[in-house]
């Protein structure tokens, strides 16, 4: 039997506690082995479900542990490149939260370091591991909706009351687009295989130096797209891909089991029936994309299996984010 990939986590982030540490603990082929935090109080809930983990007082001490194969980095956005770089140089495989960088060129050095070290390094873009997205992409690739005409993506929530949240702070790389624009933009790029050619419009509302609402329209080769991302609106998630022969809609595309049940709807034209359409719905009620992400990462580490979301994929999405901010703040 192959030994499990031994994981360490840099920092006792709330998201790490709520999602990724339990996912690593549950994933086949993985072992949650270490946590770096100087707070015993923050370490305690991790130890409650994984009592055997080693707890280090600082991140460098965890990276110095030769028994750790891979690290997960849930730190604030502005620290991602720094600690991903340190982890790769320490010989660790790296899974880093999104966005992995704050500008696309920063990812180039990570790609070069990954290749030089012969390690797996990736952004934690969990949605591509979910069967709802794999099914939607299969439908698109087989031509189920004909020629793609338009993409409509919405992802929003309201965190205005949480003023100390790193997403509401410019010094930590906050903002709605870095936090959730990565989903609407990246999902479109991944499913279609297309890149944006032009940002036609970027209507961005700012508070305290971070974007809190953005409506972006973009032109891709052969189709157009509209994206709304906000940290000041009622919770909303939806991704719909409209073709000339039908549409693919995902009703809980980014936080299934939290926002709602994962469903993929295929709307097919009913020719000769006016504007009517036939709808086929596939449901995915139990899939945990965090666990699936970890399992796929471990297979890449142990077996060399292809990983669904590479640093090059992440760079493409960050390049689009850079385009949006340039369009919103022309020189």
What is the H/E order? EHEHEHEHEHEHEHEEEEEEEHH
> Numbering strands along the chain, what is their spatial order in the largest sheet?
8-9-10-7-11-12-13-14
CATH superfamily of the largest domain: Dihydrodipicolinate Reductase, domain 2
Number of helices: 9
The CATH architecture of the largest domain:
2-Layer Sandwich
User: What share of residues is helical?
Assistant: 25-40%
Please report the total strand number as a whole number. 14
CATH topology of the largest domain: Dihydrodipicolinate Reductase, domain 2
How confident overall, as mean pLDDT? 96
Radius of gyration: 20 Å
Summarize, please.
The chain is of the alpha/beta class and 331 residues long.
What does this structure look like?
The protein is of the alpha/beta class. The mean pLDDT is 96. The chain folds into two domains: 122 residues, NAD(P)-binding Rossmann-like Domain (Rossmann fold); 156 residues, 2-Layer Sandwich (Dihydrodipicolinate Reductase, domain 2). The protein contains nine helices and 14 strands. The chain is globular. Helices cover 34% and strands 31% of the residues.
């Amino acid at each position: 039997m192959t030994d499990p990939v031994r994981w360490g986590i840099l920092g006792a982030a709330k998201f790490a506690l709520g999602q990724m540490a339990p996912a690593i603990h549950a994933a086949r082929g993985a072992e949650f082995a270490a946590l770096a935090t100087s707070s015993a109080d923050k370490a305690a809930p991790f130890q409650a479900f994984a009592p055997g983990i080693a707890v280090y007082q600082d991140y460098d001490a965890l990276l110095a542990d030769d028994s750790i194969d891979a690290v997960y980095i849930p730190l604030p956005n502005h620290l991602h490149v720094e600690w991903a770089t340190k982890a790769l140089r320490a010989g660790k495989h790296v899974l880093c939260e999104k966005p992995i960088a704050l500008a696309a060129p920063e990812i180039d050095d990570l790609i070069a370091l990954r290749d030089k070290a012969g390690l797996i390094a990736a952004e934690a873009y969990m949605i591509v591991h979910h069967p709802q997205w794999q099914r939607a992409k299969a439908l698109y690739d087989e031509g189920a909706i004909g020629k793609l005409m338009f993409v409509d993506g919405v992802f929003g929530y309201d965190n205005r009351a949480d003023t100390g949240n790193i997403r509401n702070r410019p010094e930590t790389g906050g903002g709605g687009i870095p936090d959730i624009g990565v989903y609407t933009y990246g999902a479109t790029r991944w499913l279609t295989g297309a890149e944006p050619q032009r940002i036609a419009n970027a209507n961005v509302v700012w508070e305290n130096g971070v974007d809190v609402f953005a409506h972006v329209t973009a032109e891709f080769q052969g189709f157009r797209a509209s994206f709304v991302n906000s940290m000041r609106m009622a919770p909303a998630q939806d991704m719909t891909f409209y073709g000339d022969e039908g549409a693919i809609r995902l009703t809980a595309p980014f936080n299934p089991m939290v926002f709602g049940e994962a469903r993929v709807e295929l709307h097919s034209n009913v020719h000769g029936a006016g504007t009517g359409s036939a709808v086929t719905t596939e449901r995915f009620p139990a899939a945990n994309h965090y666990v699936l992400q970890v399992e796929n990462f471990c297979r890449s580490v142990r077996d060399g299996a292809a990983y669904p979301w590479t640093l090059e994929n992440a760079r493409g999405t960050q390049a689009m984010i850079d385009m949006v901010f340039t369009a919103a703040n022309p020189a």
